[in-house]
Amino acid sequence: MTQEQCTHRNNVQSSDKPQVYKVGIYGWRKRCLYFFVLLLMILILINLALTIWILKVMNFTIDGMGTLRITEKGLKLEGDSEFLKPLYAKEIQSKPGKPLLLQSSRNVSVNIVNSNNQLLTQLVTGSGGFKARGKMFEVKSTSGKLLFSADEQEVVVGAERLRVTGAEGAVFSKSVETPHVRAEPFKELRLESPTRSLMMEAPKGIQILAEAGDIQAICRNELRLESKDGEISLDARRIRLMRLPEGKASASSSSSGTRQTVYEVCVCPNGRLFLSQAGTGSTCQISNSVCV
Predict the structure, then answer these.
(1) Domain boundaries in the chain?
(2) Where does the signal sequence lie (predicted)?
């Protein structure tokens, strides 16, 4: 075998051996990869620690979060709660035996709307006062008895007694209809109209009764007692007509002698009363100078 053939054979045998290639990251790339993996692990641990801390601070449990508990009947809040946005609930109630407090720095409004979002009833409590808007307003007792109601037509007071404790009493700009007006025991009842007239009307009659005191009717101009179909009766043991004018008889009809102290009450055709000195007969005709 020649030398050229041996060389060719060696080349063929060396070419049949498998070649080995190195696979991997070496040098600074390997160190950067380890650094990023370590940094990621540190971030995961910090995130896990923060999550556990938030769960601990917010008191997250299986039943709820903090003072909020999820029960079969709904949500249960223990303690004070603050809502920054509207709260929609079907029913809000307190614990048994505990009061329900609604507190706001401005006002508390309760609105009832229909399906078209139109306001039907509104209740507003604020610094300016208490306002209610609706077709009817009612106040009832624990037994269900009507105490007060108001609508566009009338206002009804269903209590057995209406008490007005103001110093000026009750002021009515128009008529008042009531079957009975009385004062408290040992208190006086005053019906007064400082600048206008006071009128009392009834289809069957008006009864003014004071069982333990006096009755006074005082006016500036005229006091009129009028009965169209019946009569006016003054039933008392003593009737006093104060400050009646005294009629003066003419000189021809005046009796001589001492001045008499007995008088008779006379009535003029216009209804005016006056006094006249009593005589053997009626002296109203001769002492009617008051009627002129």
Answers:
(1) 23-78, 107-160, 261-291
(2) none
